[in-house]
Specification:
heterodimer, A: alpha+beta, two-stranded antiparallel sheet, 15% strand, globular, disordered C terminus, B: mainly alpha, 8 helices, 56% helix
Chain lengths: 372, 165
């Protein structure tokens, strides 16, 4: 059994960013919702029943071959800070972090798989992969779903499919989503058009931490809205196609910026570099927004590509709970801002100044950024 | 089901309207629906116009009292939380949910993954029902040889069902 401290020190596999289209698609996630046939849903079940449900499900999840090297903990045994760390890594939802007795989380060492027990549904199984890999993520979570179904009796209706606490998830119980980094579309003020177009075809666009959260760091989550009347594969294919179109639009936006407004781009990247390198207090939102521009700078060749991982890690490491966990103390907002600025300054010491000549060359051949 | 207006003829026209997030339902017979001129349900607030002010609230109240026999969850709870109480709630509140699901999703029927075990259970119960029907028919026709063979098959199936759970 893995300890929480080792969850902290090992970054999730998806963060290493090696998947297809990883420059723009940070991660792909598939979540399946399942419930037991003969128990009330977690939101309606009394405490004793929730505990009984947990006792029934948890050992079977821990016995899965995929969970041999796993971290498993009851929510009540995790501190508020530890829960927040898991939220910042997208391993549990914000809703799950608010749960106590009768809820638990089980995840594998690579942090590609996490199972929430007694969230809104009895089981929320999630697979997360780097880049655009929705099909691969589905394969993994589908496999553990089938394995669990042999041992647990799921609530399933011939007509409605998998029954879930919220009718919006009934049918496949599947939410497929991808986290996209779209600074080009934001800078060229095309992002609202994209969001509107995507909403019209029954897909949802959300901020960094899902429903009702703000888009920070030019990061957007796009996911399916509907779960009934369409096969899992079809939902995933439809979503993948839309994401591929958005990737193309993002590349186009970047090329147009390079050709028509190179000074604006250069100014943005230079300012981001300057502020991150010299600031002594930085709020989380500002850090994400500036890091996003540095990330864009790497994609465009202004910084060497070998700095990509250390910048990507900063996206997570500068989040409030990660900062406090790292410094092993609870910090107020002001102290966090000082510490955040300090960590960023330290890591950026290794990052040389942006090189405008390289970027100009990128714009010359037009398709360099697309070659990824 | 009787018509909500005349309360004597069987209702043949069923109207559901969602207004300000509240669901209203009216069931009418052929004659009453024609009399009220229900052609375009969008053009009026259903229950209020048809039954007079206050009637819609009454209908709603009776619907809110309905409780799931398995878990005790009521439609009022659903309005509050947007979540259901248990799997059986989908049967209890099937009527209202159907409208909701239709508006929410691409279709009203699941076409995705079939859980293997649940699928087997459903298949077994279908086979069991067919065998029982045939058995009754065979007994009624005094075809005892067939009946005996069917009884054996049912026994066999029962043990299969047991091992599947």
């Amino acid at each position: 059994m893995m300890k929480f401290s080792s969850v902290m020190t090992t970054p999730g596999e998806w963060l290493r960013g090696e998947g297809p289209h990883h420059q723009i698609v940070i991660s792909s996630r598939i979540r399946l919702a399942r419930n037991l046939r003969n128990h009330a849903f977690p939101g309606w079940a009394k405490k004793a029943e929730r505990i009984a449900i947990l006792d029934l499900i948890r050992p079977r999840v821990e016995q899965l071959a995929e969970m041999q090297d796993s971290f498993a903990e009851s929510l009540q045994d995790l501190s508020a800070l530890e829960r927040q760390v898991l939220v910042e890594r997208h391993l549990i939802s914000r809703e799950h972090a608010a749960k106590g007795t009768g809820s638990a989380v089980v995840m594998n060492r690579r942090q590609t798989l996490s199972v929430m027990i007694n969230e809104e549904d009895h089981l929320r199984m999630q697979s997360i992969r780097s880049g655009l890999q929705l099909k691969q993520a589905f394969k993994l979570v589908d496999k553990i779903d089938s394995a669990l179904e042999e041992k647990l009796e799921f609530a399933y209706d011939q007509r409605l499919g998998y029954l879930t606490a919220c009718p919006t998830n009934v049918g496949t119980g599947m939410r497929a989503s991808a986290m996209l980094h779209l600074p080009g579309l934001v800078l060229s003020e095309l992002i609202n058009q994209v969001i509107q177009a995507v909403s019209k075809i029954g897909l949802a666009v959300r901020g960094l931490y899902g429903e009702g959260t703000e888009a920070m760091g030019n990061l957007f989550q796009i996911s399916n809205q509907t779960t009934l009347g369409e096969k899992e594969e079809d939902i995933i294919n439809r979503l993948s196609k839309v994401i591929e179109t958005i990737i193309e639009k993002e590349h186009d936006a970047r090329q147009i910026l390079l050709q028509k407004k190179p000074s604006t781009l250069w100014d943005q990247i230079g300012r981001a570099y300057g502020v991150l390198t010299y600031a002594h207090a930085m709020a989380s939102k500002e850090a994400l927004n500036l890091l996003s521009i540095i990330k864009l700078g790497i994609d465009l060749g202004a910084f060497a590509p070998d700095h990509r991982l250390s910048i990507d890690e900063l996206f997570i490491d500068t989040q409030p709970a990660h900062l406090q966990k790292c410094s092993e103390q609870k910090l107020n907002a002001e102290e966090r801002d000082y510490l955040r600025a300090q960590i960023i300054r330290d890591r950026l010491k290794l990052l040389p100044k942006p090189d405008i000549s390289k970027m100009a060359r990128e714009s010359g051949n037009g398709s360099a950024a697309k070659a990824s | 089901m009787l018509c909500d207006v005349c309360k004597c003829n069987d209702a043949t026209v069923f109207l559901t309207q969602i207004q300000d997030g509240k669901m209203q339902k009216v069931n009418l017979c052929d004659a009453c629906s024609k009399e009220k001129g229900v052609e375009d349900p969008k053009s009026f607030a259903l229950a209020d116009l048809l039954l007079g002010i206050g009637a819609s609230e009454e209908i709603e109240k009776s619907a809110l009292i309905q409780k799931c026999p398995v878990c005790g969850f009521s439609q009022a709870d659903f309005k509050k939380t947007g979540r259901l109480g248990c799997a059986a709630c989908y049967t209890t509140f099937a009527e209202g949910l159907h409208t909701l699901l239709k508006a929410m999703h691409k279709g009203t029927e699941h076409v995705g993954k079939l859980p293997q075990r649940a699928h087997r259970t459903i298949q077994l119960s279908h086979r069991m029902r067919a065998l029982n029907e045939n058995l009754q028919k065979a007994v009624a026709e005094e075809n005892y040889e067939t009946a005996a063979s069917l009884r054996d098959q049912i026994k066999q199936l029962e043990s299969e069902q047991l091992s599947n759970t």
